[in-house]
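All the exercises in this workshop are built on plain-text protein records. A record pairs a protein's sequence with a compact description of its fold. Read left to right, the backbone structure tokens trace the chain's path through space. Once this layout is familiar, the rest of the handout is easier to follow. Here is such a record, shown just as it appears in the course material:
>
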Amino acid sequence: MEKIIEIKHLSFEYEEGSKTIEDISFEIQKGSYTTILGHNGSGKSTIAKLLMGLLEKKSGDIIVGGITLTEETLSEVRNQIGIVFQNPDNQFIGATVRDDIAFGLENTCVDPALMDDIIHEYAKKVNMLEFLDHEPTKLSGGQKQRVAIAGILAMSPSIIILDESTSMLDPKGKTEINALVHQLNKDKNMTILSITHDIEEAAMSDYVILLGDGHIIDTGTPENVLMKQQQIESLSLDIPFAYKISKGLQSKGIQVNDYIDKEKLVKELCQLHSKK
């Protein structure tokens, strides 16, 4: 697969002698759904800001789409990335949803004659078409995230970074946003980088980068990383619910496989029940 992000020996510190990110290296494949997972304060959101050039690295290289991030290439790199933050209120510029989606298009010099069609297209994709003339700050949390995503999508980035973007949502809102982002990943081959401490979100990704105190602890598929119970819990994270249930059933003498996917666990339990 083609690499779209390369991080090489990256280090960063907020204060002299207190390293937040220390000599980390990883790659993200084009079209993948990758999660950087870690507890609060592990450095994961700092990585997102470094990727966007919002913070200046101490050492190492950040390469996005084959372009090494420098002061001279900052705009080229940023043009490839759209980021949705935990609190989208900080991203809203326009007085209405329509104005807010238009803002990014205006900054990228989109032909005004095409703008209205683009706004409608992406508002429809996130089920916010009927809210185009509403004030963004008066929407619900889930609706705000949808508007933020629509604004990012309208600019057609190669990469979307979700920086704890569902952490303030209720369960229904989380489910809706996660389903939307996974659909975009699948339908548009869009590279998704999710920054989160939510183990269930990490379980749905293609690849997991486990972070602890500014260091990479583990990398691999969700099945390979998230089933290491002792390692996960040592980082103040919880193991996936399906894995917890699998282990509980095994302790009761019910022979099921280990799962992190709830649907797969339910399917096996249904098959076991039908054999009785």
